[in-house]
Amino acid sequence: MKVLVINSGSSSIKYRLFDAKDYSMLAMGLLERIGEPGSRLSHHWRGPTGEFTETVYDRRIQNHREGLMLVDSAIAESGILGSCSELFGVGHRVVHGGETFYEPTVIDAAVVDAIRKLAPLAPLHNPANLMGIEASLEHMPGVPQVAVFDTAFHHKMPPHAFHYALPSDMYAKYHVRRYGFHGTSHEYVAGKVAVHIGKPLEELNIITLHLGNGASASAIRGGRSIDTSMGMTPLEGLVMGTRCGDLDPAVSFYLGRSTGKSGEELESMLNHESGLRGICGLNDMREIQRLADRGETRARLAFDMFCYRVKKYIGAYYAVLGRVDVVVFTGGIGENSPDVRKDSCKGLEGLGIIVDDKRNNSHGDGICEIQKEEGSVRLLVVQTNEELAIARQTMQKIRSLNTG
Length: 404
Ligand code: ADP
Description:
Elements lengths: L1 E7 L4 E7 L4 E9 L7 E7 L5 E7 L5 H14 L11 E6 L10 E2 L2 H9 L8 H14 L5 E5 L9 H4 L5 H7 L8 H15 L7 E7 L3 E7 L2 E5 L21 H10 L3 H10 L2 H6 L4 H9 L3 H25 L4 E5 H6 L1 H8 L11 H5 L6 E2 L8 E4 L4 H18 L1
Helix pairs in contact: 1-3, 10-11, 11-13
The site of adenosine-5'-diphosphate (ADP) has 13 residues, from helix 10 and helix 12.
């Protein structure tokens, strides 16, 4: 039994194929530049010895349907499946579930329609996710397909955390509220923490910091997200690769008036030209650290702003939770940057958050603890795996249908 996980962007398809027996990964790949010159599929597949081999397919791919056909033949050529129609199920990452979806949902025409209706809340994400879903339904009509929503884990936030202080009909009529994102990752790493510590999740208060190109923090009490830094869209909260994070809303109006930029242009600027890139011209944290270490002032400012914002959220969520057992670092930056972890915790010794430099600098794969013995809060570096979490949720959903 095999399950395929698809994360579709507007011009890309990322996928991972798992064996549902033990959730080992059989293949993964990235198809880029769909509908543009230079489309390219990089397909990695596991051979009989367990080693992964890369095969690259360079050919013009016009749309997501053609893209999935190519992925299907790449999987078949690597001998893993005869074709994707033999799959047990397909799990799709969907960014915004609004207030409609808060658990994995089997996709049919009505669900596609409902996801489309949520597009105004997530114009940069849901339409792109739908391109993959529709292509996949067309290409594998007999295979059960499940949507797993980034917002789902946060749906139990209390009203005082999810409401914005706006006129109340903005929520009632237009559904303006905090939804939160990266839920699959926050939930996955919190689950890992509980297993690692050997305590039930219900007894733990955890702050999870997903620090990648997109970045968000979450306050988790007893396995439930009670607050999170991203808002109605993934633009709010931490400083990100290209997104500004928290910003005085008046800045947008002021910039509209003084630059003459339209709403769409400003939205694009805040999403794609701001954050680390806006501050120093780069959004790759490795590069930024290298330049900051050499004394480049804009890179240093970008690094400092990133860590300062993370620290502010740790402090805020400490207050929200009242007691914190664990702070988790995950995502490309959280897992790989000792400097970011160290600076984000600097000055929090009074809260029992104390990084041990040696542990912090020498951590390897798997879960690592990086706190000093005398710290009362455990600081964990945990590798996230959103695709694996989606594969598991997809299988559980399909199995529950078959048994129920
Ligand atoms: P995405 O949100 O696109 O999934 P990732 O979680 O892969 O992003 O994180 C990408 C970020 O992780 C980039 O800023 C990259 O520079 C950073 N990163 C990866 N490895 C390191 C490292 N060794 N040190 C610092 N930053 C790193």
